[in-house]
Amino acid sequence: AEFTALDNQADDAASEEEAELSQPVLAVVGRPNVGKSTLVNRILGRREAVVQDTPGVTRDRVAYDAQWAGRRFTVVDTGGWEPSATGLQAAVAAQAELAMNTADAVLVVVDASVGATATDEAVAKVLRRSKRPVLLAANKVDDERLLSDVASLWSLGLGEPYPVSALHGRSSGDLLDAIIKALPEAPREREAVAGPRRVALVGKPNVGKSSLLNKLTGEQRSVVDSVAGTTVDPVDSLVELDGQVWRFVDTAGLRKRVHTASGTEYYASLRTKAAIDSSEVVIVLLDASEPLSEQDLRVLTSVVESGRACVLALNKWDLVDEDRRHQLEKELDRGLVRVTWAERVNISALTGRSVRKLAPALRTALASWDQRVPTGQLNSWLSELIAATPPPVRGGKQPKVLFATQAGIRPPTLVLFTTGFLEAGYRRFIERKFRERFGFEGSPVRINVRVRE
Ligand code: GDP
Ligand code: GDP
After folding, report:
1. Looking at the CA of 346, which ligand is closest?
2. Which atom of ligand 1 is nearest to the CA of 109?
3. Closest by alpha carbon to 29, among 106, 126, 144?
4. Given a cut of 80, is residue 372 above it in pLDDT?
């Protein structure tokens, strides 16, 4: 929460919510060969990070998901950052500086069998200014005899040195306990509401909402009402589609067909917003027989801002002829630029055409909404992408993307940690490539950028 999100997407109405969902970041710093990668592997409890035996080889992966005592956090191995400074001491100090400004806590690793070197001192000097917690690991303490050397590392002024042997796993549990204590608590993620998944059916008046609901519920109302253990809010409807029960939220208004005179539009839009808010996925009904209207666009904007998954249903398809279809394609290309990720289904609530395609589309959208890309996978993809197409230079400076994490789901939210501003066009490029690689059809993807100089 101490980071300033300088550069949210225009779409992103929920940056505060996003910050809440972030998992804390631990950066690991230290001079080469002290055992950072080995220790990162230890922390991860698996051999995901590849230890490079060739000095000077840049690691292509820098960030990973870790978990200890039920707490999730991101571990960043700063060995993968190409430092701009020349000379070992300056380079490592620069990495420490970046780490301190980027992470929620910093773990500095020193080789206890060698003792504090001038480079270690330079790093310590930087980190003593850190506003975030700093932990000191005295690595390569493979046996008891080396413990006496560990005490001398108090001289770095970074507090208590934790003796560990990354290679043999010695005492790393104590270090991890200390790390967990130092990291800020990340609030729990919003969990799925138990029971059927929640669907909102929205669209302008007369688009066919109640007709569709009737078609979907039809004869099977009684079956659905008897689903064991489900209590239904009287304003909701349980609907069985494709072998799965769904909760269509706030359908009372649709059933009663209360279309009264003045002021209705205002109340209808409030009602639409409320329905979207209590849903997980939204079916936006559009009238394919008419041009897209202002009202349609307002509904779409509400959906985009809500961060909910979405399926676009083009209703009244029975009225669409060849000419209209060409016209419609053009209108949709222009009108749906903000929801190009949503699946489109051409239906007719009147005839029942393709109505059964809605359930698979809803399932796909929700699966995307729930999807999480592991941090390691995300960063190996991202580093390749950025190496091939770096961010445009701005004001003579080349912004660097240090690493990324998927900070949350529902909706999927990426946070990119960078050293400079990323233009909207470049963020869109990243989103497009991200979708090409990982899918996410039917779900919005938020990309937040945290700029650190
Ligand atoms: P980095 O450059 O700081 O990431 O260091 P690495 O993790 O690549 O380790 C450098 C070398 O130190 C490797 O040969 C490791 O096997 C070795 N090493 C790492 N941790 C320990 C340890 O606890 N004890 C011993 N004896 N060697 C270690
Ligand atoms: P709502 O206000 O969104 O609930 O819309 P309704 O379900 O009341 O539908 C408004 C009008 O559109 C009614 O006269 C429906 O019969 C008609 N309608 C709904 N769906 C279709 C469709 O797929 N094709 C055609 N031709 N008419 C439809």
Report:
1. 2
2. 3
3. 106
4. yes
What mean pLDDT value characterizes the chain?
A: 85
Distance CA 294, CA 214 (A): 26
Count CB-CB contacts under 10 A for residue 263.
Answer: 8
Q: What is the pLDDT of residues 117-161, one digit of tens each?
A: 999 999 999 999 999 999 999 999 998 888 888 999 999 999 999
pLDDT higher at 135 or 229: 135
- φ, ψ for residue 346, nearest 5 deg: -95, 115
Locate 148 and state its tokens.
């006496």
Q: Please tell me what DSSP assigns to residue 3.
A: S
Of 13, 19, 22, the closest CA to residue 306 belongs to 13
How many CA atoms are closer than 13 Å to the CA of 36, on its beta-carbon side?
Answer: 24
Q: Cα-flanking dihedrals φ and ψ of residue 27, to 5°?
A: -100, 140
Do residues 180 and 151 touch, judged by C-beta distance below 8 A?
Answer: no
Q: Mutate which of 211, 217, 314 to test ligand 2's pocket (most atoms within 8 Å of Cβ)?
A: 211
ipTM of the complex: 0.83
DSSP assignment letter at 323: H
Per-residue pLDDT for 310 more than 50?
Answer: yes
| Ligand 2 centroid distance, CA of 224 (Å) | 24
- pTM given for the model: 0.81
What pLDDT, on a 0 to 100 scale, did the predictor assign at position 234? 66
Locate the DSSP E strands across 69-192. 71-77, 105-111, 134-139, 161-163
What residue owns the CA closest to ligand 2's atom 17?
208
